[in-house]
Amino acid sequence: MLLADDVLGRSREIGGEPLDPRYVAGFEAVDADPRQTLVVAELDGDIVGTMQITILPGIGRLGAVRGQFESVHIAESLRGQGHGAAMIRWAMDHCREQGCAFVQLTSDRRRAGAHSFYEGLGFAPSHVGYKKFL
After folding, report:
1. What average pLDDT does this structure show over 45-73?
2. Which of 8, 50, 103, 128 has a beta carbon 3.0–4.6 Å from 67's, enabling a disulfide?
3. Sorting pLDDT into bands at 50, 70 and 90, what band is 5?
4. Neighbouring residues of 112: CB distance < 8 A, sequence distance ≥ 6
């Protein structure tokens, strides 16, 4: 399970079989939403990457539509080989085709390697994000 393929993921995701039904319910909800795209990257028949793209219409920035990237994961053994960059470039092209003015994402503060990766692709750490569990 790519969600648990690093230290942070292993601490907050549940792997193994059978798959926890909450993952199935989440997948079904995302899959049913026309503003969502679930991406699966394959290499030689193996799943090596995943991400979720949400198209968000907005009022700010003159009604700009934005693309939101979530749950971006590349198999730990393949990081640094260009697979993640290819997936992000594909996702940015997809968002352009959907009329997005820009794309955005959040990344856990502890993922310094991911931050360098995104900055290398032209992303800027422009905002501070907040989260509150309910």
Report:
1. 95
2. 103
3. low
4. none
pLDDT 10s digits, 33-48: 999 999 999 999 999 9
Q: Is the peptide bond before 18 cis (omega within 30 degrees of 0)?
A: yes
Tokens read off for 104: 């955005």
Assigned domain for 100 exists: yes
- Which residues form the domain of 87? 35-120
Please tell me whether the overall predicted TM-score, pTM, comes out greater than 0.85 for this model: yes
Count: domains in the chain: 1
- Partner residues linked to 102 by β-bridges: 66
**Burial tier of 69 (Cβ tally within 10 Å: 0-12, 13-18, 19+):** buried
Mean pLDDT for 54-61 is 96
Give the Cα separation of 88 and 118 in Å (integer). Answer: 9
Would 76 be classed as within a structural domain? yes
